[in-house]
Amino acid sequence: MELTTEKLLQDMLANLTQLNYIEPETIPNIDLYMDQVTTFMNQHLAGSKRYEEDKILTKTMINNYAKNHLLPPPVKKKYSREHVLVLIFIYYFKSMLSIKDIDTLLHPVLEKYFQTDSELDLTSIYKEVFSLSDTQLAKLREDLSSSSAAALQTFTDVKDPKERDFLQLFSFLCTLSFDVYMKKQLIEQIIDLFPEPEHKK
């Protein structure tokens, strides 16, 4: 059976139920060496890889994040669970933001909540932020369903089924791309309101 655009979009919506994130409880409550950190991240975020050979996190990435002040230095070459939480935030942000923007965004959070005496800690913030994931996933599913239905109403006058399928899929991808573009613009505008980190001045 040939895969049509309509069937492809239906399968995509069904697969959204498989999206998840790293539960805080699964993060080891002991300090880890770099190899253990990369192994943990690559195992728990394997489902988000596009290609099998992709790496979620490498030693080079960790060193680069530390060099750019995104990640606080380890203690005696060991990384705490809070280091792992920071790496998870970086992982999600880096798909759309520059290193500079991630630094600007994370810096005030790390300064106030990373291994400090504040009433809130990084684990609490992580839990609170990601508690919204189920609600966001439901909204995303509804939005994608609406966008895919609208895309299937485009190019209906094209007689060739394969050509029509392709153009409808292209229409849907353009809609998604525009949505991502506009949200990225908004995120960048908000980040520009943040004060520049001291180490960048």
Describe the structure.
It contains eight helices and two strands. The chain is an all-alpha fold. It has one domain. A two-stranded antiparallel ribbon has the order 1-2. Helix 1 (5-15) packs antiparallel against helix 7 and helix 7 (133-151) packs antiparallel against helix 8.
Index terms:
201 residues; mainly alpha; 8 helices
Structural class: mainly alpha
Question: Roughly what percent helix?
Answer: 55-70%
User: Total number of helical segments?
Assistant: 8
Strand content: under 5%
Write the layout of secondary structure elements.
Layout: H1 5-15, E1 32-33, H2 34-44, H3 59-67, E2 78-79, H4 81-93, H5 99-113, H6 122-130, H7 133-151, H8 161-191
Antiparallel strand pairs: 1-2
Helix pairs in contact: 1-7, 7-8
Provide a concise account of the structure shown.
The chain is mainly α.
